[in-house]
Amino acid sequence: MKSISFFCILLFAVLFKAASQCSDAGVCAIGKKSDPLSHQAGVSYNFGRSGKADDLTFHSINFEATIRVLQDANIIATFPWSRQSGPFGSASGIGDMSVFWSQQVWTDGVAQVSVELGGKLATANVEAGDLPQAYQSGLGTNDLIVGASYVEESLNAAVGYQLSRGRSNNSVTRLRRGDDFFLRAGYSGELEEFQYALEALAIKRLEESSVLDSTSPTGTFVNIPGSDQFQVNILGKLVLLLDGSKNARLIAAVPLLQRNVNVDGLTRSLTLSFGFSFIL
Fold first, then answer.
1. pLDDT in tens, 5-53
2. Residues 6+ apart with CB under 8 A from 179
3. How far apart (Å, rounded) are the C-alpha atoms in residues 99 and 77?
4. Which terminus of the chain is more exposed, N or C, with fewer CB under 10 A?
5. Rounded to 5 degrees, what are φ and ψ at 135?
6. How far is CA 78 from CA 27, 57, 146, 156, 206, in A?
7. How far apart are CA 46 and CA 252, in angstroms?
8. In the chain, helix, strand, coil percent, each to 5?
């Protein structure tokens, strides 16, 4: 039966090709389910394509840890390494680290409400290969992220805000991104030896991003038309339960509203992710 379940996971991924997974680890961390009594660790491999606009390919390995610090609080950390390649060349290296404090504020034993506070740290080199920002392993800014989430056995929902201030040191674009507001909601269930989940993620960039004007001799900055875009993704996940403390998961997503501007390198027209996690 385990081989049948694993085949179902692979089939599910194929059905969700042309994916656009939430590629910003900070946004993905808000509303994340975790075991309430244990520490957790995991690793995942992610493959992505940006689409025909710039034809970038992304490979990344993410190391994740959830540390139980109090009876109702967790620290969630993500450490990525990634490689990006496209028509202009390729770049690779350590990405931006994300760290969050998740605090449960209410529970009735089945459902719980939590608040999350944390951020994304600019730990990546954004000058690799003298390539534009979209080719870099990080975004070049220290972002503050706040959110609140509701989680129960089969339903989850979250709302959050990502405050991005400052400008990347990438010498080609000197990108300054707008802030993001996002909503996330999903349903999960179990079937034989695996769990499944379907989520919707909506992200609205609240202002246009700006870059260095390459035609200006004075080093002025210009806004990018359409970069304050609204995007909606449908994300699917299947988890194979290996035993009581380990699982393997496969994730993919479908973009309902595609991002047309990819100056930050977050656009995906195809994403597949395979990961493994265990309880310590």
1. 443 433 333 333 333 335 555 556 565 555 555 799 999 999 998 887 6
2. 161, 162, 163, 164, 205, 206, 207
3. 4
4. N
5. -90, -10
6. 12, 21, 16, 21, 25
7. 10
8. 10, 55, 40
Burial of residue 210, with CB atoms counted within 10 A of its CB: 0-12 exposed, 13-18 middle, 19 or more buried: buried
* Residues 194-211: tens digit of each pLDDT: 999 999 999 999 999 999
Residue among 67, 93, 87, 89 at smallest CA distance from 78? 67
Say which residues have a Cβ less than 8 Å from residue 4's Cβ, sequence separation at least 6: 192
Q: Where are the alpha helices (DSSP H) in the chain?
A: 2-15, 25-29
Angle formed at CA 64 by CA 58 and CA 68, multiple of 5 degrees: 160
Domains of the chain: 2-279 (2.40.160.40)
Beta strands, E only, 8-88: 40-49, 57-70, 73-86
272 neighbors 62 (Cβ within 8 angstroms): no
